[in-house]
């Protein structure tokens, strides 16, 4: 019998990650830290010593989902730490679940990790436990989200993110670039740049430069996009507002440095609704701007989201929005019915729109956009598109073109003569289109 004390098994942590890609990035950071300290992860509640629930508190429906997830984790495991956006309202959580071990707010990584230490002390020497230098990612290996800033300095009247997450805090350019470089070295083929307001990147830092390799890189949207574009991966920009300086980034798209894709949450088009929403860049002439962007980069794909039934939205305002959509010909559109979020200024606005009118406008908008989307996709039949492979199927593969972000946009169904690999980028000849997806065959590897 050996008289060596057997090593204590590593504690296991479970994680439930709800909400947007930004919350997913927070979850990845927490897991990376814990992995570095020797924790193991459990996919089942029963196998976990403690469960972290990363919540979303943006809409009331998201809060309800978060509370349900906490309830499930409490029932199945009973040792639960709550973090994320809803963690900014500890009273609401503790009133329902007084026995949760800890409640921490968004981006409070240190507090989450400290709470995990208390619940289940680390078993390993952190110096012996190697975390891959690119950290732990919850997205498939071939794409990764890259968060360039936290918080938001806008004050949209329907949103409580600035209240939950504070004003804009940008990461220095060199820090973002080092992370991006590690990701690419680890096999990532597509970087998805996210923040609450990507076009405002660096404003808080007064565009201060930071040293990256042999050069100084300014914390500026254009400079960062150019540097990211030189790393050899696809670069996709999310949450950009239509400010004039975005024109310069469109030129990078035309040069092929970053993907010709812009995710711009316009939310509405009627000037008085935009004003009531207090949207950033509400004064910009967006149709002219889009036209100009397409002159610079003809294959630019634009995705956006809209809110219908915002307080005060008249039938005329809504008709304005539909006309605007027909003129703008956006490639991808998401639509939400206005939902009051506890604490948002918009809740106190007069002329709330009845639910049945919201539902009817939602349907009309989606029908209008479906026709636009089908027309735009049909134009692609016969063209050749670069496609990144997401999943291999029995008959070929599914992937995405430059116009499709993962999870929110369409899919390209690909037939191929030889087996394809996830993450591979191939050239596909488009043979058929339906309302949202494309179908084609590989013509180049
Ligand atoms: S830009 Fe507006 S909607 Fe987006 S996070 Fe900031 S305040 Fe909220």
UniProtKB/TrEMBL annotation:
EC number: 2.8.4.4
Compartment(s) where it occurs, according to its Swiss-Prot or TrEMBL record: Cytoplasm
Function according to Swiss-Prot or TrEMBL: Catalyzes the methylthiolation of an aspartic acid residue of ribosomal protein uS12.
Entry keyword set: 4Fe-4S, Cytoplasm, Iron, Iron-sulfur, Metal-binding, Ribonucleoprotein, Ribosomal protein, S-adenosyl-L-methionine, Transferase
Cofactor stoichiometry and binding remark: Binds 2 [4Fe-4S] clusters. One cluster is coordinated with 3 cysteines and an exchangeable S-adenosyl-L-methionine.
Cofactor(s) this protein cannot do without: [4Fe-4S] cluster
Record protein name field: Ribosomal protein uS12 methylthiotransferase RimO
Domain TRAM: 378-444
Reaction(s) the record says it catalyses: L-aspartate(89)-[ribosomal protein uS12]-hydrogen + (sulfur carrier)-SH + AH2 + 2 S-adenosyl-L-methionine = 3-methylsulfanyl-L-aspartate(89)-[ribosomal protein uS12]-hydrogen + (sulfur carrier)-H + 5'-deoxyadenosine + L-methionine + A + S-adenosyl-L-homocysteine + 2 H(+)
Molecular functions (GO terms): 4 iron, 4 sulfur cluster binding; aspartic acid methylthiotransferase activity; metal ion binding; protein methylthiotransferase activity
Keyword Iron carried by entry: yes
PANTHER family in UniProt: RIBOSOMAL PROTEIN S12 METHYLTHIOTRANSFERASE RIMO (PTHR43837), RIBOSOMAL PROTEIN US12 METHYLTHIOTRANSFERASE RIMO (PTHR43837:SF1)
GO cellular component: cytosol; ribosome
Entry similarity comment: Belongs to the methylthiotransferase family. RimO subfamily.
Any GO BP annotation: tRNA modification
Entries under Pfam families matching the protein: Radical_SAM, TRAM_2, UPF0004
Annotated binding of [4Fe-4S] cluster 2, by residue: 152, 156, 159
Binding site for [4Fe-4S] cluster 1: 20, 56, 85
Species this protein is from: Blastochloris tepida
Main location per the UniProt record: cytoplasm
Source organism, top-level taxon: Bacteria
Span of domain MTTase N-terminal: 11-121
Domain Radical SAM core intervals: 138-375
